Amino acid sequence: KAGVTQTPRYLIKTRGQQVTLSCSPISGHRSVSWYQQTPGQGLQFLFEYFSETQRNKGNFPGRFSGRQFSNSRSEMNVSTLELGDSALYLCASSLDRDRARYEQYFGPGTRLTVT
Amino acid sequence: GQNIDQPTEMTATEGAIVQINCTYQTSGFNGLFWYQQHAGEAPTFLSYNVLDGLEEKGRFSSFLSRSKGYSYLLLKELQMKDSASYLCAVRTASGTYKYIFGTGTRLKVLA
Hints:
The complex is a heterodimer.
Chain A: E1 5-7, E2 10-13, E3 19-24, E4 31-38, E5 42-50, E6 53-57, E7 64-68, E8 74-78, E9 87-94, E10 105-106, E11 110-114
Parallel strand pairs in A: 2-11
Antiparallel strand pairs in A: 1-3, 3-8, 4-5, 4-9, 5-6, 7-8, 9-10, 9-11
Chain B: E1 3-5, E2 9-13, E3 18-25, E4 32-37, E5 44-49, E6 53-57, E7 60-65, E8 70-75, E9 84-94, E10 96-101, E11 105-110
Parallel strand pairs in B: 2-11
Antiparallel strand pairs in B: 1-3, 3-8, 4-5, 4-9, 6-7, 7-8, 9-10, 9-11
């Protein structure tokens, strides 16, 4: 079974630009979560999508948004980029069945650098 | 607020046993996860605890005490390849589910 894939793997943008990151979950997984990872803050939850609906949201400004398509693929968008947005953005998928362990499987991440 | 604490760094010797502690304060609890993350790679799942007690999986064991908000990951017969960051994460159950991660413990295994 193919793992979680994320594109692109590396991205360099300048302040003020916007960026779209893509995530394809493991086949059959309907829950997709996005995280920002920085050396000082660790993994911070951005949002979770399930069946094309945002089910949960972390404490990030409205510049961070996302969506999920009917095939469970998800995109994350960051508008008006700031230097502090430089980070590794990780996507994780899970089965999300009730009473199941549904551990999250992470993709390799997109390394975003804002200059 | 919601908080997960783990030591920042630990060092141990090849062949030894190391225990990485994690304490948490979250609104609602629906399971505790441990992940391993090698430098430059994505986190990979190690263990899951939702009931009190010890879960053993080969060289790795994880313990949970819900009343104390405490967990530990025990690594036995350490190998050089175990040098990595170990992330403790709690799945909360307040309304909808959410995963809260600690900042990770960087483990260095020395020869």
